[in-house]
Amino acid sequence: MKKIIFLTLSALLTLTMTAQFDRNQMPEPGPAREIQLGKYNTFKLKNGLTVIVVEDNKLPRVTMNLLVNRDAIFEGDKAGYVEIAGELMRRGTTNRPKEILDEEIDFMGANVSTSSTSINASGLSKYAETLMEIMADIAINPAFPESDFESIMLNSRSGVESEKDDPGSIMRRMRYAVMYGLDHPYGESMTEETLDNVTLADCKAYYETYFRPNISYLAVVGNVRTKDVKKWARKYFRNWKRGDVPQMSFPAPPLPEALSVAFSNRSASVQSQIVIGNTIDLKPGHPDVVRMRVANQILGGGSQGRLFQNLREDKAYTYGSYSSYNTDKLIGSFTASADVRNDVTDSAVTQILGEIERMRTEPVDAKTLQDVKNYLSGTFGMSLERPQTLARFALDIERYGLPKDYYSNYLKSLNDVTPEDVLQAAKTYMRPENGFVFVVGKDSEVGDNLRAFGEVRYFDQQGNPTERPSVAIPAGITAQSLIEKYLNTVGIANVGKMKDLSMEMKAELPQGQGTLNIVIKKKAGKEANMFMQELGMMGMTIQRQSFDGKRGQMVMQGQKQEIEGAELASMMIEAEFFPEASYAAAGYELSISGADRINGEVVYIVEVKKPDGTIISEYYNAESGLKIRSEQTMDTPQGEMTQATNFADYREVEGFMIPHRMIQNIGGMDIKMDATAIRVNSGVAASEFSAK
C-alpha cells in the first residue's frame, strides 16, 4: 500500500519588546503585588455537606461541582468496579429513567456528567435551581439499571482490549504498577480478568458506602445569589443521609535503592516512549509546593524548559520533552518524559538524566529564575480572571485545611523563592537514583543499550513482570516460504479471475482535524496493471497518484508531478493485486531478519530489499501466514523516520482475504483507516487511471 503523506504547517509568532535600561545589569525585581481574591461564601448543611458559592454575574451561566472527598480505594481482583459505578450513576434515577433525564438536560442545553467521586453540571443560570435538583436526584436516588450496567461492562471490556496495543496505555499501566506496586490503589489497573469479577451489587455497595454528604463539597459558580443557593441546597439535598465512611491508609511504596529500567516490549513501535520518575512525599499546601513548581518549570514546564530546548531544539530527538509533578495527600510523583526515535532512545535517556542532575547540582542563574517567576506570576494572575479558579482555591482550603490566606500569599511565596530553594527542591523531589527509567518500545532495537542505566526488567501490557521476549526461528522457515504461505492464504490461486479491485476507506484524524477519505483502485492491464489512489477531505481531493500501465503521476494541491525511475518501478509493483508475488521478478532480495511476538502471537520478520537499496520490513503471523505489519525508514526534514502500517481485520471478499483495517503511524500518531467498501470485479473503467 502506497504511503500516505500528511503535511503539517505551523506558524511562529515573535513578540519584540524594547525598553530603556542598562542591558548589562538585570533590574532588581519589585515586591510581589498584592493579590485581591474575589469573595466566596461557604456554609454547611445539617447532614454535613459543605457548600461553596462564588457569585459572578458576567455571564448568564452557572457551573456546579459535587465532590466526594473519600480516601483512595484498593479494588483488588475487582479493579474497575468503582469507575463503572461512577459512570452508571448518570444512567438514570429512581425518579427519572435515563431517557427522561437526558430529555430534561437537553431541553436546558445543559451538561451533566458523573464519576466515581463527582457529579458535574453546567448550563444557563436561569435553570440553576433545576440543575441543582437534578444533581441532588442523581446523588441521592441513582437507579443503577441492570441493562445499562451490562452496556457499560461491554464498553469497558472493549476499552481494555483497545488499550492492549496502545503505547500510552501500556506505559501508564506499567509505570503505575512498578512505581506504586500492584497491591497499592494507585498501582492497580482494570483488566479483562478483574472485569469478570465485577457485579452490579459491587457498584451499588460502592455508592452506598462512599457517597455521603458529610465527606462531600458542593461548589456553585456563576450568575447566582448565595441566598438562593442556600435555599435550593437545603431543599434538594436535605434527604441525603450522612453516614460513617471507611478511612483507608496505605504505606508509602518503597523507594528503589538504585536507578533501574522497566521495559515493556511493543514490537510494532517505531519510536520509544520514555518516562523517568520517582514517587514523592509532597502534600498539598506544603511550603515546598511553590519551590517545586519553579524547579519543574525550569526543567520541563514548557517550550522554554531545559528538556525541550535540549531534546528538541538542540538534538532534534523529539517533538517535545516535558516534566511534571503532582501533590497528593497519600503519595505523589515526579516524572520527565519524551517520545523519541528508536535509534536515539538511550541518548535521550542520557540527556534527560543529565538535565535532572544539572537541576540538582547547579544553582539556577538569577535571570532564568526571574523569568520563570514572571511567567508563573502572569499565569496565576490570568487564572484569577476565571471564577472557577476562586472556587477551586476555596475547595482546596476546605479539603486540605490550608490557611485562609494561602492563595492570597501565593505571589509573595513565589517571589521569595531563591536559587538555593530551587536547588533544594530538585535534590529532594527529583531523585532518579531512587527511581525508574520506564520505556515502551521495540526491545530488539533499543533494549540492549538501556542496560547502561541499570538492571532492565521486563513487564507485559498489564504491568506484570515477564521474561525478555525471545523467539526462535524453526528450521526450514525461509523468507520465500513465508511469502508463499501468505500468498496461498490470501488467495493467489484465484488471482487470474480478478479483473479489478476497488477499496474505499475512512480515517478519523487526531485532535478533531476531520475525516480522511481514501480510495484505492487497481485494474488488470495487457502489459502492466493500473493503479490509482486518492486522498480527500470535505469533498475535495488533496492528493492523487495514478499509473495507467505506462505513465505515473502525482497531483497534490493542484501541482502535478511525473513519477519516474525507482518510484515508478515501485508503483508498478504496487499496481499488482498481490505485490508480493512480483518480488522475485522485480529483483527484490528477501531474507529473514528475526522473529518476535506481537500481541502475544509469534511473527517472522522478512527483510525486503529493493534494487534501489530501499529496505522494507514485513511481519508475517507464524500461524495464519497473514502479513500484519510493514515498516519502512525514510528521510524527512526531521531526520530518519520509520513509517509503519499495521494490517488487521482480514475478511473474505469474492474468494480473496483482504484487510479491512490499516493503522498507519504518522509522526508518532496512529491513523486508523477502516474499509467502508471493498469490491472485486466491479467494472472499474480504464479512464479512472489516466493522468489528469
Can you walk through the features of this model?
- This protein has 692 residues and is of the alpha+beta class.
- It has three domains: 41-237, Cytochrome Bc1 Complex, Chain A, domain 1 (2-Layer Sandwich), CATH 3.30.830.10; 260-466, Cytochrome Bc1 Complex, Chain A, domain 1; 479-689, Lipoprotein localisation LolA/LolB/LppX (outer membrane lipoprotein receptor (LolB), chain A, Clam), CATH 2.50.20.10.
- It contains 18 helices and 26 strands.
- The strands form three sheets. Strands 19-18-17-16-15-14-26-25-24-23-22-21-20 form a 13-stranded antiparallel β-sheet. It has a seven-stranded mixed β-sheet with strand order 9-10-8-11-7-12-13, with helices on both faces. The protein has a six-stranded mixed β-sheet with strand order 1-2-6-3-5-4, sandwiched between helices.
- Strand 20 and strand 21 form a beta hairpin.
- The longest helix has 18 residues, at 146-163.
- The radius of gyration is 30 Å and the shape is globular.
- It starts with 40 loop residues before the first strand and ends in a 12-residue tail after the last strand.
- The model is unreliable at 1-30 (pLDDT under 50).
